[in-house]
Each structure stands twice: as C-alpha cells, then as structure tokens.
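Box 3.1 A note on notation
Throughout this textbook, protein chains are presented in two layers. The first layer is the amino acid sequence; the second is a token string describing backbone geometry. Keep the layers aligned when reading.
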Amino acid sequence: MFSKILVATDGSQYSDKAIDVAIGLAKVFNSSLYIIHVVEEDKVAMATSTMPIMVSIIDDMVKVGNEILSKAKAKAAGMGVNAETILARGNAADKILENAEKLNVDLIVVGSRGLRGLARFLLGSVSEKVARHSNKPVLIVK
C-alpha cells in the first residue's frame, strides 16, 4: 500500500511521534523510508541583519539538523528499517512537498504542532500547509 514514505522532523516531540508512526508503517508495509529536516534560513534572515551572525546561526541550524536526522535514522535502523535522510533549506512546507513529489512517495507523515487560536489563524502550521497543498496522502500525528 505504501511503498515510499516521507516523514518530516524538526526534533520536536510531535515530530518524534511522527517518526515512530512512520517507522512502524514502513516496517509493516516494507516501505522505503525517507526522513527530511528543513533548515528555514529565511527566519534567521528576518531575525538579524548582521551577515556573520546569520551565517553562524545557519551553520548551527545545519549541524543540529544533521544531528536530528542521524538520531532518527539510528532509531529506524534499531527497529529494522533502513532510512535515507534529507537535509533541505528553505520553507519547510514547500521543501516537504517538493521532496514528496521528487521521490514520488505514497504517504507524507508530519507531526502536529498544536497551534491554537489566533496563532493558528494567522500563521497556520507546516502540517496544515502540507495537508492543504499535497496531492499525496498526509498523515498528521498528534
């Protein structure tokens, strides 16, 4: 049913749950598993106008992203699932959707952030944007 699964992670508790679900599904369906982490550089650019500081922060974000991916890949391997990792840069929802298309996955798994009230109305969430714009099935894990 699901031969290729893409799961997004940002290192949060919600994405950790999404990884657990994606690994479980990959194991049941003997699926290829892809784990993506997106470094959102534009948020750093909005927060600081000093180039050396911005470069340093982005370098740190890439390092943390690689650590998050390594941990997720090790977790999958520990459960008998081979996973490939992807570190992307840009808007999280856009990069998740782009990679889902590029890899031709059958399912996208994302964690819910649990935004409420005005913040949800104004900002939305990555999971909502992915679900709204994807032509692939999307599983949002709470």
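The two ends are 22 Å apart (CA to CA). The longest strand covers residues 32-39.
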